[in-house]
Amino acid sequence: MSDTKLLFEPFNIGKITLKNRVGVAPMTRISATEEGFVTNKMVNYYGSFAEGGFGLIITEGTYIDDKYSQTYYDQPGIAFDEQAHEWKKVVDAVHSAGSKIFMQLQHTGPLSQGNRFANETVAPSSVQPKGEQLKFYLGEGPFRLPREITIEEIVDVKNSFVDAAKRAKSIGFDGIELHGANGYLLDAFLTEYTNQRNDEYGGTTENRVRLLVETIQDVRKAVGEDFTIGIRISQSKVNDYTYKWSGKEQDAKIIFGTLGKTSLDYIHVTEYKAWKPAFETGKDSLVVLAKEYSQLPIIANGQLEKPERASEIINNGHADIVTLGKGALANHDWVKKVQNGEPLEEFDPEKVLQPTAVIKDFEL
Ligand SMILES: Cc1cc2nc3c(=O)[nH]c(=O)nc-3n(C[C@H](O)[C@H](O)[C@H](O)COP(=O)(O)O)c2cc1C
């Protein structure tokens, strides 16, 4: 039997206290209305994780403006006050069951496959995205060739993150998480092959992390000190699972070291298997490197649904919180079940995902 004691103890992140260290990972549902409004289905979905004992819920990636940020049709937005207003139902459902909730703010960048506001995509550089659109989200064929985003538009993007964060705060979210992972806009800036810019946002790793840092700084200025701000970081992308930072540990040092000097409250690290070495050349996982170089609280994600895996990464001090994706979908009451010593359900895409799942799309 693994020692799950610490896993179920409270943890302070930013200025808030989580009742335990187990969270739900951000997971896109495409179950909002066409106009990006929250539906009752979403209220019930998020509420049920809170009822099931999770201390923290991070929402699905939510688009931030009416320009180029939307990723999928029927994705929820927080681009307008009216959309924010509807999210309050989700916040209230989660809070009334005693959990905390962060909103994941997403700008899709090159990987949009359904944006009702635009017929083109923007990215750091005009580079054809690898792979094909995700069938799971009803996409088909190659991604569009993005247009290089201008400096003026980069300012717009930062402002959109700021406005979205202010809206999230105003309706009671406990924090926001910038989606800096998986190939979307912020990660596309971070990634060498999608960022071929010659200005201050391209070239060196220090330059490629600049937009992430500036966004964090702008959001912090707007929301104040008492609102939790995190960022999600990965190496892999939804359209390039096996990608690794070419500068390996040196890149990790620069990226996490730079993020650690900002006013961020946490880094959420996602890898296919959170405990595995990040690079062939060393033994440390990305989670360990993130903690070492940033000195910030770390949320770990990636196949941690076995209680012994989840507690090991917390007990050995590598991470402070774990999030579960597929394990949470299969067990909305994962926390209660583990606390009561009840058996867990295996993840079965047919049962818990809609539309018909192509689960390999999510082997991140
Ligand atoms: C259905 C589904 C939707 C997802 N949507 C998002 C998302 O909106 N934002 C994000 O950062 N990751 C997203 N992911 C990735 C998960 O947050 C998580 O990193 C991944 O499932 C691996 O964790 P796991 O092994 O616990 O499932 C999604 C994963 C799944 C299965």
From TrEMBL:
Pfam families according to UniProt: Oxidored_FMN
SUPFAM superfamilies: FMN-linked oxidoreductases
Domain of life: Bacteria
Recorded GO MF terms: FMN binding; oxidoreductase activity
PANTHER family (UniProt xref): BINDING OXIDOREDUCTASE, PUTATIVE (AFU_ORTHOLOGUE AFUA_2G08260)-RELATED (PTHR43656)
Keyword Flavoprotein carried by entry: yes
Protein name per its UniProtKB record: NADH:flavin oxidoreductase
Alphabetically ordered keywords of this record: Flavoprotein, Oxidoreductase
Domain NADH:flavin oxidoreductase/NADH oxidase N-terminal: 7-344
Record carries keyword Oxidoreductase: yes
Organism: Peribacillus simplex
